[in-house]
Amino acid sequence: MKDCLPQNLRELLITPSILIEYTFCPRFIYFMFSLDIPQREGNRFKVVKGRNIHREKAAANKEYLRKKLGIIEKQSEVYLASDRYHLRGIVDEVLTFSDGTMASLDYKYSQYKEINYRTHKIQAICYTLLIEDNYKRKSRKAFIVYTRSKNKLIEFDFTDKDRAEIKSMIENVLHIIKSGFFPKKTASQKRCSDCTFNKICV
After folding, report:
1. Coil, strand or helix: which one is 95?
2. Is 185 domain-assigned?
3. How many CB atoms lie within 10 A of CB 83?
4. Tens place of pLDDT for every residue, the chain, 202 residues?
C-alpha cells in the first residue's frame, strides 16, 4: 500500500472496528476523528457482553481446538500492530498449523445465521494482514466462534481481491482522518435511524 501520509500521521494505526464503522457510514470517521466526538458504544449490552465473553474464553480451556483444527500452537489475547498497513488490534487467538501457516480465531457474542457477516470478514482479513506482517508467515484463512450458537465454528477463506479491498478501505479512512474530508453519508435510511450521530449529521 503506497504511503502518502504526512510525517505526523505515518504512525497512525487504526483498528478493524474503525473500518467496520466506515462501512456502516463513512461519516462515522469524520465525527469520531475530525470533530473528536465519541460514539459511546461501551454502554451497549452486546458490546459489553462480547467483551466479557472474550475474557472468559481467554482464560478457559486452551487445548480444546488442537484436535479439531490440527493446530500445533495457540496464543491468546495477542496485541498486533503494523506500520505497513496502519493497523492494530487484539486477536483473541493466533493459531499455528503444522504446515507453518497461521490464522486468527475470534469469539462473537452472536448467533450464526448461515451467512458470513461482512463486518466479521473485514475484521478477520485485518487480523490476517496483521499476522502476516508480524510473523512473516502465510495466513490464508481465519475462524470465528459464534458463542450464542453453541460455539459454532466458521472458517473464512480470503482472495487477493478481498485483501485489496481492505487496503483501499484503510486508505480512504486515513484520507478522512488526515484531511478532515466530509464524506457522503450512507444511502441506508435504516442505518441513519440507528446511528449515534443522527442528531448532528446534516
Report:
1. strand
2. yes
3. 13
4. 444 444 445 568 999 999 999 999 999 999 999 898 877 654 444 455 555 555 565 445 545 666 778 899 999 999 999 999 999 999 999 999 999 999 999 999 889 988 878 999 999 999 999 999 999 999 999 999 998 898 899 999 999 999 999 999 999 999 999 999 999 999 888 888 878 898 889 7
Per the rule left: phi > 0, alpha: psi between -120 and 50, beta: everything else, 154 is beta
Specify the number of domains making up the chain.
1
Q: Which cell is 22 given? A: 466506515
* Stated length of the chain: 202
How many whole angstroms separate alpha carbon 9 and alpha carbon 160? 27
Torsion of CA 60, 62, 68, 73, to 10 degrees: 160
Measure the CA angle with vertex 87, ends 200 and 34; round to 5°: 25
Residue type for position 40: R
141-146 vs 102-108, strand pairing mode? parallel
The single-letter code of the amino acid at 12 is L
Domain that holds residue 152: 7-193
Task: Let me know if residue 80 belongs to a domain.
Answer: yes
